[in-house]
## 1
Amino acid sequence: MISESVVSTPAHTLEVDDARLHYELRGTGPLIALVGAPMDASAFAPLAELLAVDHTVLTTDPRGINRSPVHDPEQESTPQLRAGDLSRLLAHIDAGPATVFGSSGGAVTVLALAEAHPEQVHTVIAHEPPLIELLDDRVELHAGTEEIIATHLSGDTLGAWGKFMSQANIQLPPGLLEMMFGGERDPRQLADEHRWFTRELRATTHFSPDIAALRDASARIVIGIGEDSSGQLCDRSSRALTTALGSEPTLFPGDHTGFVGDPDSFATRLRAVLRES
């Protein structure tokens, strides 16, 4: 089990065969992992602090992002590889089986974990996974993803983000795209962004979940959708997954990144979902 001395020091690293994984632990109690892709541990910090009152909270930088360097920067960041990393972290911490909450690409990661290592989890909450393979217009969407990647590689990253938001059906206020992704930006942010466009986006959106395995899993599988995400791509793909599983979506406050915009409300809803398990 996790010792008090480990929990009191939030930041740690775990060496794996082809990467060094940065992870953080907060609090004591039942283990919950908060997982993003490409979002790193810092994006979940406010939510983690709220949950750490009565949980041990694991957050991590996914491989190749921020403080988790990989030996081969050309390696594709697949959901299966990221699930393997999360499995190693859970085994290293030795406090499972765990609740795992994943958002966006991280939601795909935790679904891959549930398929490959069901013994390590008792509750899987996949918040807005971009499972394009489940949609009828997947051929057009995959073509759009290739155009997004090509636009980024041409040097027009702002244009790539514009095409990404359009395909995701995320409507931003005028000028916000330029404010977020234009002008001078942090080199680390740019490096993480480049890796996401070139080594992560394609593999994540091409992931096809094993519906039979998820149906048969001993873990409780919860598919979360933001209340403000209606009509967006990840709303559509999340609902397609619940239909395939024969379940209903669970609504969370906010949009695709509701846990960032309003972590207090999100934590309250997440606690309610956990109490239902």
Note: DSSP finds twelve helices and eight strands in the chain.
## 2
Amino acid sequence: MAIKTPLKWVGSKARLMPRLRPHLPEGKRLVEPFAGSCAVMMNTEYEEYLIADVNPDLINLYQQIKEKPEAVIHHLGNMFLLKNTKAGYLNAREIFNAGQLYPLERAVFFLFLNRHCFNGLCRYNRNGLFNVPYGKYVNPYFPVTEIRAFAQKAQRATFVTAGYMQTLAMVRAGDVVYCDPPYLTESSNFTAYHGGGFTHLDHGKLARKLRKLAGEGVSVIASNSDIDTVHLLYAGFDLVRINAPRSVGAAATSQKTAAELIIKAPAGEGKAVVNV
């Protein structure tokens, strides 16, 4: 059974860890340029982790949990008691967006918003303001167990606010790299990536960088959607096709599965697509 994380997160790998974990090789340090919910960190046992993301709120939350888990729990508990209404949520969002909070306060507000907003989405408008509507949950889950477990595991981790290319420039010999970028789709020309977008150009740059690292002997694994463009970008890599659950739609309870790929550094000439 997968270990859960403090955050609700679209695209979290928690439920996929039984399928993903066998494809993550041994190594001293795992490098993740797209932190997300940190489900991979929480469900693996590397000696060290380099966890990065372009979203400073995400990285600040993880750093605050690492350093001050009981303070996070205490202040979050107060917010759950005092602001567990639509009006309370909107007030918390307004305070968060005013940008006058200390790092610990901002981390607590971010986690509160995540647990009370629609579907646990993390979305900002063009002005950098968090704009996800209220989720209308009767009894939002208070993740005290997950915060304490995360704090313990985080003692092995270094958290940095950085883009994917900057993070991959920090890779050293013996590292294992796992990339879980915003997925490509057949029709979209926008995929959310904090305040901007993760474009087709970014996907091309990422694929070229991973190919270069693989050529230098670094263990490289990535996830993406099972579409022709991804097959072309990673031609020569080993591709493992899996069916992954999806739970974002018009209703919070809507679910379906979608084919996606586990992409591994080339093991030889040509490419192999395996169904699991």
Note: The CA atoms of residues 53 and 161 lie 5 Å apart.
## 3
Amino acid sequence: MFDPVFLSVAVLAVFLVGLAKSGLLASIGVVGVPLLTLVMPARDAAGMMLPLLLIMDAIAVYVYRRDVDWKIFWILLPGALVGTAIAWALSAVVTEAAVRLVIGVIALMFVIDAWLPLRKKLEGLPPSRGWGTFWGAVAGFTSFVSHTGGPPVQIYMLPLRLPPAIFAGTNAVFFAVVNALKLIPYFTLGQLSVSNMQASAVLVPVAIGGMLVGVFLVRRIDTTLFYRIAYILIFLLSLKLIYDGIAGSFFA
């Protein structure tokens, strides 16, 4: 299993997720499982990534424990619980390709909307509970299927224009809880196999290294530049997800 091709792809995927978990360019974490599916089945990829995510979550929560907007966290969490439960119930019939397609379309619409003048009028408004519950549910669902809960949360949080550290800290605590909720379902579905756990153990240093690099940079990057890069990355990733979703749904 640990051939050069697998290790190369896995190291890149886990390092990018580590950068995202640090709060630096959080949108880039969505490529983790899609990259791994190049060298292993999608369900195994998600299962292998979960222990690494939990380790990175613990580090991120410690680093950003004082940089959390708890109001936003409690707005997002109830929806995430519902979305996770729905995904577990439908895990046997929902394909990953379909989820990628939906996420890609939503993310693309979000970026286009963000670049229109109307979005500028909405930025800085107080966080909406109904809107946050909806996107929390979407995040819980997509996170369960393929650890791609980042874009839905960013759709809700980016217009709030939070300082980068608060943005990172709120993300860290939210996804630490969401990922912990997936342990029992993943175990019952057979995704936490011995081989997956062995691969996770080998990649722990890569995950920690990616986080350390990201943590070093996130408090030093310019806020305007931070959001500009985030929007551009979400746009590019939305195109990739749409392509993967269409290819997997109609040409598999």
Note: The chain has twelve helices and no strands.
